[in-house]
Amino acid sequence: MNQLWAIAVNTFKETIRDRVLAVIVLFALLMIVAGLWLGSISLGEEGRMLTDFGLVAVTFFGLVVAVFVAAGLVHKEMEKRTVFILFSKPVSRPAFIVGKFFGLAATMAIVIGAMGLFLFALVWVLSKHPSGTILVAVLMIYAQLLVVMAVTILFSTLGSAILASVLGICVFVAGQLSHNVLALTRLGKNPVTEVLSWVIYVVIPNFSAVDVKAGAVGEQTIAWGQIGLWLLYLAAYTVVVLGFAAAVFRRKEF
Amino acid sequence: MWRRVLAVVVVVACGAGVVGYQATRPSRAPANPRVFIPSPSFFTDFSPSFRTSIADAYYLFMVQYYGEHVNGDHRLDSLPAMVDLITTLSPHYTKAYIFGAFGLMDAGRPDLGYKLLQRGFKENPDDWRFPDYLGFFAYTFGKGKARDAVVGDWYRQAAALPGSPPYVKRMAAAMLGKGGQTEKAILLWGQVYSAGDKYSQQRAVAGLEKILPADKAARMKAVAPLYGTMPKAEFDALIAELFKGYK
Amino acid sequence: MTAAAALSVRDLRKTVHVGFRRRAVEILKGVDLAVAPGEVFGLLGPNGAGKTTTIKVVLGLMRPTSGSVELAVGGLGRVGYLPENPYFYDYLSGTEFLTFCARLFGLEAEARSRRVAALLEDVDLTAAAGTHLRKYSKGMLQRIGIAQALINDPELVLLDEPMTGLDPIGRVEVKRIIEGLHERGKTVLFNSHILGDVHDLCTHIAIMQSGRVIWRGTVPEALAEAPTLEEFFMKVVTA
Fold it and tell me: Is the pTM of this model over 0.90?
């Protein structure tokens, strides 16, 4: 646990001190503020426009940070050969992978939290009706990005950082379309394609099971039970992916 | 030294060219009243988390489209498709239904506006605004003997929903009365009277006067159902006003 | 080879697969090595001889294809390692970096801060302890590298080209540190191309070429066969 914590803290310092991160977050905040302009041409729907497009900005920029930082985490250590310093000590490889994940998760919590709180404050000032549902939506976005981070870390143990980034983004998009794959499993008359579709459906993370923004924009009331179950599913998925990443990394030579 | 001067001159000249090019672009060509709007099914396969975002983007597009054409060429050919898309992707987007309905009215298709509001009411059965606007549409564009009854019924439904303002109940009572639904109208006027403020009471009395029979016995029979629907003191006060001058 | 060796390598072989067709390349072709406790052991050889690969297999950074490695000191917890041209986390300060390394060995907070302070003083970096590593000179990086290799007070210290890129003062300082380790009874194994340093520091040497150890013995034994270590090296390697 000591090692895991040490690696997590080190990763947190590494990522939070990255100037590129600060630039991305600043840009994200500007994009959120741009939602105000969209609201000005919406005939009285400023609150909804700011909330909806603000959450899209949080998702998009959060995805950029999650994918590109996660892809570089493991790869940078190997490229810069700091792995020699690490693994010449009695450091467990699974602890390294999990520690890296937790360190980045902490950084992402700050990044996403900052963007979410900024959006919440802006909506509060604009519409005078603070809605905690925005923060719930931000939490759900964060949960999705944790899965994307874990998947990207797995891919980075298998290939280059660029490939891991691209695949991480692909997994995010595929996850948004997960329900389409489920529909495919029910359409196919061929048992082979049915089974294949089912396998793909299970392997791809299901990001479409819950409408993340619906509660925040007033489209529907929040179903806490459904959200809780979905978050547990995402947590379990993350554990499985990190397990695979640790297993792959165990076999790696430097 | 001269190289540096030349470099500065080149950069400044290019900057001037950039600004000049932008400044001399012709003003925008008249917008095409027919724009391509994908069908809702194209977008419903997207993640549910992004459907509202797509709906919002098209809502903004719709508002701009309406603004460009309503005072210009008066052609809102693509408005029905836009409204259909937005409300399919975001069924609880009340503003989109209402704006769309009035936009369709301006486009010469109040029938589509009416159907849109009906669909909106089905998706949002607790929102008083839908039956309220449906009543307006029915009143403005409806024809025939049954019109007033239909209008009154819409306002009655609106009045029964939480958050509806006082005028809705008055409208319901007045239109039901005009439409021949006298019994329902009387009960509604009773509820208006019970609102308590002087204006509501005056309006209720005036409304009842229009629909109650002049004959005392018939009048008493007509107002009898109001007994028990309001506090006795209020009932007595209303009866006193309605039978003022009767012996 | 004795059972009491601090480090014992027997018939170590390592094959890697390179290229699109996964062509097999044998890097280590049966390396035999024994480093007794307390020795300062120099591992010499031309580029590509397999010195760094041998060290990597010893440390578990690579898996051997066959053969065995025995660390009598008690596992990686008692080993310190400085890689060639080391790169550290440049966003950390000297103190933060050594603290991180100490944490990896499970040192408790008080022991950790004492050890870090002592090592910074040993390598003469106390003044720069709070500076980020990206601002360290080559010599300072090498010294912080040695400090991290000693953070766990190891019994066996592996140094891969510890003098590379150092100015004369830096080299003197590193030599002083290695001599200090020897005096304290630590076992040191280091690779180096600078035979003058090998001559000054090592008690024993081994020469590798093409994945094998082709000569091993003491420095006096080597100098008995040639006037200088350089000439002896050339003689063995070109034989």
Answer: no
